[in-house]
Amino acid sequence: MRKIDTRRFVRATRSTPRDINRQIILNLVREHQPLSRADLARRMDIGRGMITSLVDELLGEEAIYEGATVDAPRGRKPKMLYVRTRDRLVIGIDVRFSSTYLMLSDFSGNPLVMEQFDTVTDPAELVTELASRIGQMLANHQSAGRCEGIGLVVPGMTDQRTGRVLFAPQLGWRDVAMRDALSDATGLPVQIENAPIACALAQMWLGQRGADMPTDFVYVTVSDGVGAGIVVNGEVVRGSAYSAGEFGHIPLSIDGPRCLCGSQGCLEAFTSNLATLSRYLGHELSATGTRKLLLESGLTIMDVIARSRAGEERARSAIHETARYLGIGLAGIINALNPARIFVGGEIATAWSDVEPLIREAIVARVLTSAGAATPIIPEPASDHPRLRGAAVLVAAPTFAAPRLA
Amino acid sequence: MRKIDTRRFVRATRSTPRDINRQIILNLVREHQPLSRADLARRMDIGRGMITSLVDELLGEEAIYEGATVDAPRGRKPKMLYVRTRDRLVIGIDVRFSSTYLMLSDFSGNPLVMEQFDTVTDPAELVTELASRIGQMLANHQSAGRCEGIGLVVPGMTDQRTGRVLFAPQLGWRDVAMRDALSDATGLPVQIENAPIACALAQMWLGQRGADMPTDFVYVTVSDGVGAGIVVNGEVVRGSAYSAGEFGHIPLSIDGPRCLCGSQGCLEAFTSNLATLSRYLGHELSATGTRKLLLESGLTIMDVIARSRAGEERARSAIHETARYLGIGLAGIINALNPARIFVGGEIATAWSDVEPLIREAIVARVLTSAGAATPIIPEPASDHPRLRGAAVLVAAPTFAAPRLA
DNA sequence: CGATATTGTACGCAGAACGAACAATATCGC
DNA sequence: GCGATATTGTTCGTTCTGCGTACAATATCG
Hints:
Two copies of one chain form a homodimer.
Chain A: H1 16-32, H2 37-44, H3 48-60, E1 64-69, E2 79-83, E3 88-95, E4 99-106, E5 111-118, H4 123-140, E6 146-154, E7 157-159, E8 164-168, E9 173-176, H5 178-186, E10 190-194, H6 195-206, E11 217-222, E12 226-232, E13 235-236, H7 267-271, H8 273-280, H9 287-297, H10 301-310, H11 313-337, E14 341-346, H12 352-366, H13 370-373, E15 377-380, H14 386-400
Parallel strand pairs in A: 3-6, 6-10, 11-14, 14-15
Antiparallel strand pairs in A: 1-2, 3-4, 4-5, 7-8, 8-9, 11-12, 12-13
The first copy, chain A, binds a DNA duplex through helix 1, helix 2 and helix 3.
């Protein structure tokens, strides 16, 4: 039950039903392909004539294509329909603290090439570097299809409307007009998005087909910081000032360790990779000190995970403590939002069999309802490149999204 | 950008544009009345002919009515349109731990009568008592209009679909089919809802007209428990198992005081009325002990607030500590969801001038962004009867809601 | 080889948006 | 006082499009 916003509603016109049904067909084909026209008519409870007309429109726009006629037990054999994704290309970009990742993929997020280079933190220089690499990449794969846009994922708050990065502490960016800069440099449309939200979008649009993706879920990313992409009622939560999902800074223990944000006892101060590392090193977390120490020791979170698996007690205990605190944080999410699923991304996903029981234990101890305590927690390894897949979705999804109405 | 759910979509038919535009007109009149047909045509960017046709339909259904023709500086004088709410009645019911409140109101939530009686915790007996009182109430006000339904608000988790109260700890209810029982006993349609969500709905539909109600806000209720009604993208968050909004049980301090839920250091264990009272009494919070103690002493939270305002130091400090912890909890909400506003309901709203600075201080200390730290926190006194207004909305709002589509 | 089943297309009807013309009702300039 | 102008609300013909029916195409089965 939604209230109509009387200041910015979208009224219906004569072509509204057509737009809606066209989009439904497109999505049905996308998720249940191959489908014949008759299949669509049955699923939509509509005449086959109507389907013919709408499918012709989609075929004309080359949004879908007709495959081979297929065998049937009786009667005329149907011609199957498929969405056209293979030759519609997207550039996905994932800017991270140390490295920037670049991917050329199709509309389904299947990668054609991937590149990686050291992040240039100056925005103008980064745009130049990106534009040159993108030009090269597209030139090398001209035959694969036409590139329809660029999806740029940054570790920070973004404003979709203006295309600006509002604040990205890891890169030292504040109010940078990245979308227009990159768009001007490449001549391609650019979409920008915050990393955890991009991961959530990737799950929403590219998550396991067949099984149904719920309309309420949360994607928690644990890396240098801790963030969340929240999906409620099938839509992403951006917040009124684009800062929703800063999940790392909910309080866990008000007189806990000092957090890099300046506050105290934030979830992030217990469970971020930096927190785990400083716990392992027996060192207090601090903005300058910890990074310096890590740079000197050359130690990464993957090392600690490896040592833990190899049986080193100190590493094991550092990881386990992180898991316990993460479980407490997830319990808070479950009590507050009751999502159908929680995805956990980041390096900790590679040690899942070790940490999962501890996370679950903390959840069971703190979640009010038994249904909530059983919420599936699903790890997503970095090898799936969720951020880059999310970047691709930024460009591809608007084609398939429901029309905004009323 | 919403993804279409390919399993339960709603396809458009020939009458879909009409349904949508009809509903937009209804809402425009509701929120900006009085409006003429020509006003509507301008606001909707549509021909006046179309408006005539749609308005005739609404007039036929008696959803709106035509008022007097009004003066204009030039030309033909317009006939103004108004929504019909005065003679469409609703029974609102608010079941609480000790008392149950009953209200007969119109579709705008304006009360005609209010009653109050001691809560009967046995569901069957309560239904009998309610049915008898409702029958009497409607008989006494037959001339005021027709009653179109009952809105029932309970302190616990509810399932809209089946009309069952899943769990209401204060009443000791578990899986009780309240909707059907009350509907059978009264012959009226019944809607049930959880208390904080009902308060949020009341704000959404009946909040200050003129000023625009944001599409993202949170209503936090602080009474015996602490709960939240969350509104995101203009829709209420119910959660995948109907348990969203249990905000009282997010962790504040993992080795804090024991909470009645069995866990430790929940927000509720710091800021509920029971927590404040036991802090004032210098007593530890416990499920049986605290209630017993309060029953013996006869002390209520309003007493403590009164003593605090009168200058009693121990009361002042108990209230102030509650305010500080509440601020930390609200900071967590702001970091996680970034709502445009937060409403705070419950007895603490009556001491707002005392607690507001402390709440704000805690928020400023813990919220990441300056925009977030400035989030308006708005108290709503119990005298506004938010739960009962929410109950009325449960029945009235579906008439005005946007049609579900795609 | 006709009966039956199924897919996809063609076509006529009807519902509704759209736009233009028109009737109703007022003020203003002269 | 009267025509020019402005504004509101209605009517009506056009056009788009959903919807149902009929039909063509294509296959299997008895």
